[in-house]
C-alpha cells in the first residue's frame, strides 16, 4: 500500500501528542507541514532556522521513534525551511544559500545524512582570523591578566568566573588579537562549539537589516545558537538604543545558558557613556581586564617575534631604535617593520638606523628632538653635585653610582641610542651594565617616593629644554 505523506505525518503527530504537553505540541509541532514522501524519507516544512535547531536539540529521540513506527527502521526526516519574501508578507520555501544573516547556512532542503531523524547542526562561519593565536600574542606585564583569563576561558568557555570577559585599552594594543585568539583556541579544544566574532558596526548593520525585513526574532534566535560570542569595539553601541535593547536580550539568554561572551572596548565599562545602565551592570559581572602600552622589553619581544614570523633579520641597534620611538601602538610597530623591509628591498639600501629614521617619520607625527647622552650626564651630575667626568669612572662612591645609574636610565628612556652606545658613554661599559643600572633605578622608583620625585623633576627639565631649542 502506497503511503500518503500527509497521513504519515498525521500519524506521527498523534504519537507525538501523547508524549509532550499540550503547550509544547502547539508551539513546536502544529506549525509543521508535511511536504513530500520519497521512499523512506519524509520531508516536512518548518517556519525558520531556529525552529529546526530546537527540534534537533529537544525532540530528536521522539521524532526517531515516531518516524520509524511509520516508515520502518530506515525511516528518516528531511527539513525544508520557510523564509520571508522581501517584497511581500508571504512566505516561500528557501531554496538557495542564505547570506543575509550573521552567518551562512544552507536554508533549502536540509538533508539528514544519518539514519536517525534530526538535523545536522547548522555550521556558522566563525569569522575569526586564523593568524590571531596565543602563540604569537607576546605576554608582558601590560597584558598578563587579560591573556591568562583568555587561556582559562579557552579551556572551559562559559564555565569560568570570567563571563563576560571585557578587554579594554587604547588602539593598537592587541584587543582584537587576544579576543580572536580565545576563539581560535576554543575551535581547537572544542571543535563542536559554535564561535562567532562580529565587529560592533557589523552587528548594528545586521540589526538594521533585520528590522527592515521584520525579522528581529530570527536575528535574536540565530545569536542564541552561538556558544562563544565575541563582539569587538563595544563602545560603538553607545547611544544606539534599539541596538542596545536587542543586544541586552541576546546577552541575557547567552549568559543564562552558560555561553561565553567576550567584549572589547577602548575604555572600561564604567566609562562607556551613552550605554544603558543595565548593560553596564552586566558587563561588570565577569572580568574587566585592561591592556596597557607595552614596556620596552615587551616591544622588543613583539618586534623580534614578528621578525621571526616574516623571516627577516634586522640589526640589534635598529630594533632598539624602532622600539624607543614607537611606544604606544603595536600595530604601528609591525607597520614600521614591514615598511623598513620594503624600503630596503626596493631601494637596495642596507637596513640601518638612518633608514629606520626615514621610515618612522611616516608613523610618528613629530619625532622627538635629539637628546644627547652628554646633555643628560651634565644635567644629572649638576643635580647631584658630582663631577661629570666621574660618571665614566670606575669609582663605587654611592652618590656617583646613583648619578651614573640614573643617567643611564634616562638615556635609555629619552634617547634613541642603543644600550651598547649608552654604555660607551660611561667608560665603555657593556649593555648588560646598562640593563642592571636601569633595573636598580626602577627598584628605587618603586620604593622611594623622594627619589621618584627627583627623577620626575629631571625628566621635566630635559623635556623643557627641548622646547627651548
How is the CATH topology of the largest domain named?
Answer: Rossmann fold
Order of helices and strands: HHEEHEEEEEHEHEHHEHEHEHHHHHHHHH
Uncertain spans, ≥5 residues at pLDDT below 50?
83-121
How much of the residues is beta strand, in percent?
5-15%
Query: What would CATH call the architecture of the largest domain?
Result: 3-Layer(aba) Sandwich
Structural class: alpha/beta
Q: Overall 3D geometry?
A: elongated
Return the average pLDDT rounded to an integer: 80
SS summary, helix count: 18
Please count the beta strands (DSSP E, at least 2 residues each): 12
**Regarding CATH, which class of the largest domain?**
Alpha Beta
Explain what you see.
The chain is an alpha/beta fold and 469 residues long. The chain folds into four domains: 107 residues, DnaA, N-terminal domain (GMP Synthetase, Chain A, domain 3); 148 residues, P-loop containing nucleotide triphosphate hydrolases (Rossmann fold), CATH 3.40.50; 65 residues, Helicase, Ruva Protein, domain 3; 96 residues, DnaA protein, C-terminal DNA-binding domain (Chromosomal Replication Initiator Protein Dnaa, Chain: A, Orthogonal Bundle). The protein is built from 18 helices and twelve strands. Strands 1, 2, 3, 4 and 7 form a five-stranded mixed β-sheet that branches. A five-stranded parallel β-sheet has the order 9-10-11-8-12, with helices on both faces. Strands 5-6 form a two-stranded antiparallel sheet. β5 and β6 form a beta hairpin.
